[in-house]
Design goal:
mainly alpha
């Protein structure tokens, strides 16, 4: 989304505030800098929104080299988090398994 040009009174006020710190600033230069900044922005995906890798119970068991029953036990104890898909589908975030791999199974 492209930013709108700020109203002249706002640009004037900002120019006045910046004048002691940025010698030679003019309203036109300020607007130009705002436009350049807007064009340079790339929408960064925050870490919380980055796509996660999800595994089935079978895949998680293979990764931890244990049986599927052990994964279900860990899920029921709350030691693993799950994402439900529909009524019966369960997926496990790969990051949770990585934490378990580092700390070991209990």
């Amino acid at each position: 989304m492209k930013a709108k040009t700020p109203p002249p009174n706002i640009v004037g006020a900002c120019t006045g505030l910046l004048a002691p710190y940025v010698p030679g600033i003019t309203p036109e230069k300020l607007v130009e800098a705002i436009r350049n900044l807007d064009m340079a922005k790339k929408p960064a995906m925050p870490p919380s929104a980055q796509p996660l890798e999800y595994l089935t119970i079978r895949q998680a068991a293979q990764r931890l080299k244990c049986c599927e029953k052990q994964i279900r036990i860990l899920l029921s104890r709350g030691e693993l988090t799950r994402a439900r898909i529909g009524k019966r589908g369960v997926r496990i975030p790969a990051g949770c398994l990585a934490r378990l791999e580092e700390g070991g199974l209990s």
